[in-house]
Amino acid sequence: MNSLIAGPTKFHEDDCRLKLPANIDSGKSSEEELQPFPDAEISSIALENRNGAKIHYTYYPASPSKPLRPNPFAKSLVVFLNGLILPRSSWDNGIHTFLEKRITAQLPYPALLSYDRFGQGDSDRDPNDQGDPPCHGHDCVSAVHDLKQFTLQIWKEHLTASNPVNFPALIFVCNSIGCAIARLFAQAYPGTVLGLLFLDSVMANSDFVSMWPDPDAENFDPTTLPPGVSEKDVRDTREKYRVMFHPSVPNMEGLTRRNLATLLPDAHLPVLEGYNGEGPFLTVAGHDWETFADQSFTGSLHTPRLLTMTYANPAWQKYNEGLVWITEGAKAIGPIIAVGCGHFVQKDGPGFVSDELVSLLDRVVNRVEQVSERDGVGE
Q1: In a domain, 378, yes or no
Q2: Contact, 268 vs 257, CB < 8 A?
Q3: CB–CB of 112/57 below 8 Å?
Q4: Rounded to two decimals, what is the model's pTM?
Q5: CATH for 286
Q6: pLDDT in tens, 299-342
Q7: 120 lies in a domain?
Q8: Per-residue pLDDT tens digits for 68-117
Q9: Which InterPro entries match (predicted)?
Q10: CA quadruple 25, 28, 33, 36: dihedral positive or negative?
């Protein structure tokens, strides 16, 4: 673990071409050269024991180490985990912004990896899926096993020649159902996950219908509805969410959610064992309530803003408050709000993603713990 917790190091390459901007105060001459922006490797890899099916990925190598300037992230790998809708390309702007910040500040950075799961983006369909998409071909447990095999093969191909360790210390940056996959991964493979950045996690234990009042229930009281919201508004919203978001609805990826509430019945459990036997560093971020309400109204669902503000947003906030309990003590911060971002935080706020990844890496390297108000949540 010592190589992962060394203090932050100023990083400088002798043969780079980028120049440090004059308005950046780094204690160095404005003519000093920076390390070059790394080239992305855009490729695919056939997973072992998956009948040759290929996963497509984008990979950025870690900044190199030098004898007097070791990279404290040399044994780390940041993996970006998509939701169901947006492919790996949705992370590109955030990744570029992150790399620009690290290079400009002459700071090291870990290897970065985004990928499309089977049935998503450029990748092949899961060879074990039956029937044409949309379907319930495989579940999140299958996605977790594929992720383990994928990261293992990537690590062997790119990193083990210079860093002879069997498996990297993983840092997951996740959106939506990617957060559930990260939790299940850390649970299935304890000791492998060093850090987690959750960007508007899926409510894994929700059917996305029950969070709305049911006008057809015997105990329904119409006077409890917000002013200006009718029973028809609520009934229509429940039906639209049932058709689009209920776990029984199949998707084009073939990644079923039918058993997700069974796999992760609680937001605050299980408590995860991270890298080196410690709890992983965790940042929990939720969407901006106003932005999400606006997008829900102007999008295909046309959900009245007041309904989203009254029911959906508080339910999501409560779930996020539970998530901070899945690691130990002061390792978690949040839930914080991704200002100006709806559910797809990486699309709406790439700068927010890069800033929070920088902050998470700083905590990982310097072993910084945060004061987190968790009293009463998840008990």
Answers
A1: no
A2: no
A3: no
A4: 0.89
A5: 3.40.50.1820
A6: 999 999 999 999 999 999 999 999 999 999 789 999 999 999 99
A7: yes
A8: 788 999 899 999 999 999 999 999 999 999 999 999 999 999 999 999 99
A9: AB_hydrolase_1, AB_hydrolase_fold
A10: negative
